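Students often ask why we bother predicting the structure of a whole assembly rather than each chain alone. The short answer is interfaces. A chain on its own may look different once its partners are present, and contacts between molecules only exist in the joint model. In this exercise we take two input lines together and write out one structure for the complete complex. Read the inputs first and try to guess which parts will touch.
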Amino acid sequence: MAGSIFGRQVDDREGFASSNRDRHRFFVAPTVHVIGLSLLFLTPGLTLALLIEWGSASSHDEGALLLATAIAMVVGGALWFPTSVGSGISARSVFASVAFSWIACSFVGAVPYAAGSMFSWGQFDNALFEAVSGFSATGSTVLDDIERNGAGILMWRQITQFYGGMGMVVLAVTVLPVLGVGGLSLMSAEAPGLATDRLAPRVSETARTLWKLYLGITVVVTTLLWAVPGPNLYDAFAHALTTASTGGFSTYNASVGHFDSWLVETIIVVGLFLCAINFTLHHRALRGDVGGYWRSADTRMYAYITAAAIAFATLLNWLQDVRDTQGDLIETGFTAALRDSTFNVVTLASSGGFGNARGEDSLGNFVLWSPPLQLVLLLLMVIGGSAGSTAGGAKVFRVQVAFSYAVRSVKKLRHPSSIVPMKLGQAPVPTDNVHRIIGFLTTFLAITLIGTLLVTATGAPFKESVSASISAMSNMGPALGGAGPTSNFLFFESRFARMVLTTLMMIGRLEIFAVLLMFATPAASVRKRLSTRS
Amino acid sequence: MSAAITAFLTVAALSTLLYVVTRTLTRVDDALYESVAGVSTNALSIFEDPSVISDGMLIWRAGTQWLGGLAALGLAVGLLPFLGGSRELSGGPQLRARGNDALATRPVKALKRVAAIYAIVTSGVAIAFLVAGMGPRDAVAHSLSTVSTGGFSTWADSIGHFDSWAVEFVAIGAMVGAASSVAIAWLVWRRAFGDTRRAFELQVYLAGISGATLWVWWLQQGHDGTDETGIREALFTVVSVATTTGHRVADWGSWHPGASALLLVMLVIGGTAGSVAGGLRWIRLIGMGQFIWRELQRQLHPRLVRTVKVGRTKISEASVDRMHAQMVYVMTLGAVASLVLALFGEGITEAITLTISAISTMGPGFDDSQQGIVSATRLSRPERAVLMPVMLTGRVFLYPAFVAGGAAMTEVARRARAVSRR
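Now the answer. The structure tokens for the assembled complex follow.
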């Protein structure tokens, strides 16, 4: 996560790494070291889940959690101990470290599901889907009955989203030695946004500050949820973890709708809204600069979009006939329309993905809403939250820049000699960053389109396929139609379709480039060896 | 550019008058819609069975598409490259045959040559249809609506009515030719066949059509227990959609979801630059691919300097800017129009596919229940009213519409300021 908008710095040491020893020093060792450290950081979460599973009456997956803890410790230690990052990290290693760390954590994170009673080893693809959905803070599920699982394994599911919200690599950076610009690049490559603002002179200090903020928000949300009637401490903690990460996993089949409490929904809505705002602004606000929120063009636009969508949804849900799955009319007063519209709009705009439906035929089930509202929800999924937050999607600032860019292009066509600067609010946007943003958006759309084509090729309907692909790329959670908030992704009967969506979740969380460039180091190495031999 | 838009609207107005005066259509709004669908070369007709129309009006109806196609071609190849548009992205009107002059060096010369090529190709296609077994009326009407990638037919079941491989073969050739750059036809005319090999975009386009045909054909094998779709049917449908024409030999809206989705993607991409077909154009797709590759490399080498190229043609940064801006406009227009269509009662899939199809100048969309393609006969009048400006905007390649719109808004703002000062 983290960071604001412009200027990634990378340490391009390709030119220096002429020998095998140099290649190992600059490319392989840092990558392996970061992967090992990321795996080791899973251990506290797994141990907590294990303790809860042991202590709960429904415990039956202790062995699976123990196995995963052992694997994380042994493999993580084996990778971490003999390697080091030295004084820096190369550009190629940055992407490889982040992408391979996420893949490694996802595989280890899936072990408790596959080894326990949730799935079996034969259904490892489903276990991996659940793990990737967790670490990418997406919230899609392939569980048809969440509540039949033990408290510990469900807590692990929540914890994966907590890890993913801020990022395991950001966590790893907190304990890494001084990395120079490479450390900042590591965080930026994992962060939703373009680059990370330095909150402190040292990169590790910046990472620690971000994690402290993240933990602080989680503690506050836990306390508030526990204080209101409904959730017990376990529920409050579990839902706070996935609120701060804008993940959306719940320990109940009906998600937040299980509590049927407007107080719980209000706390979660506020939590999600805040966590979809740049964490740097929270940091400044805590130091007294509250006006920073309003000065940020990105945050202002995010607030406008959310408010407009809430107003539109409330109006339409209130004035239009909404029918349930049987075709009967659902009674919708203004208050009910406002409550359900606000919850669902915020949860989708922040890429949270919680549901507040009190049953399949309630207004909270947004697949029952009218088509224009569902289209608005799809747009909200694509846009996502602010840069530097835990939210997913293409990000508000990128959409703003794309629009300014298009308007400037028409102006320049009318007045070819004119010089029209690109600005976001009052801040000028350098051309390189504009190109990076446009490149990101184009790739985002292209990958979503390819995902849709692959999912529809398995026979899934168009609406479900396109919305699920958007949802996965935006790390949202539910989709439209049969894969809506009261259903699950088992709607996609084909294993191939679910694997495609798993891949999209990972690509979306790492904001594309890290995944696409993860093979840059191995490919360069192979190319170099081939050219040396020839 | 404003003049070009005015020309489209004038033809539409004249056509509306003709439909009403001849009582082919009794309502002015219906006549206006059919005319706009015609000049924008969309196949989204409100006639469920066109065979009830008189022969003369059937020819005129196809003629509106031919005129729309001619105007669009003139705009794309004859005017835009000379008005600050992207020459590299306009389909190579400057493509120079060895030893011969280029197709377009000055606007007037370019327009004359484009019109001549367009008329000759249309005549050739009409003769080919006659030889393939069509009657004279059908041959003329279909040649007009095929060369313009319009898609209006004289029969309810379109080209499928003839059930003839020869007719389909001619139509496929004509559609592919129409969706290829007019500069290629110019090179062929000047017998510079060897120079056509430089048309990288065309090669990619033909490869795309071949790949899509195989993919659709493979998905259609035994889909939902229906009869298997033959390679001929798959090829015709892919070509018809990829050239944004809209002729039919099968109801592809009820095909496998994967096939329908791929056809929608082909529709978005459309034909090649410098052709009469709509859509984003393959040259932009290739350019975007190159741009993405450059940005990926810049992640590793931030100071990398690299030019975007399509084949051997270098694309200037200004053209790259315009290419992406056009994509942003397409998406914005698509989102707004889909939302308005949904507000008028269309489902999500129908709203999205109808809008995409209208922007790409094909017309029909499909629904989510695989019941078949969505035609204009089931659309309400407000929905047709929404689609009309979308179809026109798509036909004039968006940019002129937005430039003209921007100029109009600037003028309105200037006058408003002047009034407020007084």
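Check your guess against this: The longest helix of chain A spans residues 431-457.
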